[in-house]
Automatic annotation (TrEMBL):
GO MF term list: heme binding; iron ion binding; monooxygenase activity; oxidoreductase activity, acting on paired donors, with incorporation or reduction of molecular oxygen
Annotated CDD domains: CYP64-like
Protein name stated in the entry: CyP450 monooxygenase
Cellular localisation: Membrane
Transmembrane spans: 12-32
Originating species: Polyporus arcularius HHB13444
One Pfam match: p450
Membrane topology: Single-pass membrane protein
Gene Ontology CC: membrane
Source superkingdom: Eukaryota
Gene3D superfamilies (UniProt xref): Cytochrome P450
Signal is among the record's keywords: no
Amino acid sequence: MAGPLDIGSSLISQPWALLVLSLLFVGIYVKYNSGPRFANPKKLPLPPGPKPLPIIGNALDVPTEKMGQRLKELTEKYGDVVYLDALGQPMIILGSHEAASELLDKRSANYSDRIPSVMRLISGWEWTFVLMPYGLPWRRRRKEMHQFFHPNAVAQYQPLQQRECLKFLAKLLEKPETFLHQVRHSFASTIMRISYGVEVADENDPYVIAVEEGVATFNQAFVPGAFLVETFPSLMRIPSWFPGGGFKRTATAWQKIAHNMRDAPFEKTMESMANGTAEPCIATTMMENAMNRKDADLAEERIYARDVSALAYAAGADTTISTVQTFFMAMACYPEVQKKARAELDAVVGPNRLPTWDDRDSLPYITAIAKESMRWQSVVPLGVPHRSLADDEYKGYYIPAGSTCIANLWAFSRDPKVYPDPETFNPERFLKDGQINPAVQDPNTFVFGYGRRICPGRHFAEASLFIMISSILHTLNIDQAIDEQGKPITPKAEMTYGVISYPKDFPCSIKPRSPQAQALIYAGLKA
């Protein structure tokens, strides 16, 4: 068996390995000799953190899995602002909502940039404003998104959301074992109508499949540390067929998926618009507005309309999908929560109708369940990293320009000082005297991001969560599934790992709450 030196000698003897290693060492050298250690005009100390090693800095301290948990351990040891030097790239880990709010929210003019991403450019996601650098292209897309998803605009989607919710409930009555899939399909169907005016098929709709495949690639591509080329752009010089160039082949495959998600439904809507058969939607509204402006560059406006229509799915929908799936997990594990929720629904709504948005202020326990579903299993554990544009100072510490700033949302949701016994699903933590307690931090203040980068779809997401959760609890029973031995199967509170985390597959039993509740669902569909 070869020892370490034999393996090293064998590796170095390969020409391709020498090329890859040379590019890596060049990248490390450049980063190491252009880092923030040569800036800092006020000679302020950097935030505390683990001692860096020569050349590689804190590269070994940057976790590659369970990042939320591992970074929380660092901030518990060093404080709520931690500095890491990852191969010459300054990283600021924000371990408290207070620190994240101060920097990313109150000082958002300096912290609204994104880190440069090679994978964004080569994997087909160059058009998404979620990852775009701070600048005019980002601001234009953000402005367009806002006009369709600000609080007053969101109200116009309520009839559609109610209708899709009823279809979702009916599907659960027919195929309860497919509940995780049906959650995805319901939200995809709603967003496709809003973005493109397209009515999707109940099963295997090509546009829904395209969206789900696209979001899946996004979720893999932009996990911090997933691709070495993000740290060492010099690796782009490696041919795709060469050892070490596999990321290029992956990116090429993902590019087709991401562009298909963006282009296919938009082109269909443009065809319908040309034929005079298109339904009102984001895509048609943007194009009609452009055509009514004499100075508009229609080719450029078409690109904006295409991008914004596709972005709408990511503007809260996928976060909502994960939260509703988490809600099902919680209900299977905490039957006493269902019991209290139904008591509130019976008192306010009664047995003869379904909940509406007009009931929202009278259903504080339902609202608390929605908040706890957002908090209990962190949907976006690390958010999307911000980047500082200029040198800054925080609590006497120096924050270099170009720092990657990671807000550990997972840690925020697990802060025992804010949320006692954080691993327990407890909606009552948000209540006082039967009403929402404003003194308890609302998870929505961090789940949807910070500052100018806050998710523009958050109001739509919150409205969707309320109508889904209230309607499910009013009409259905969610229980633990029973195994072959007749024993209940308690779901494990486990999440997938990605930019967005989802509950790992779990079974549960879903049945109508009563014949009258079942009749309400079908009557609503016929109305």
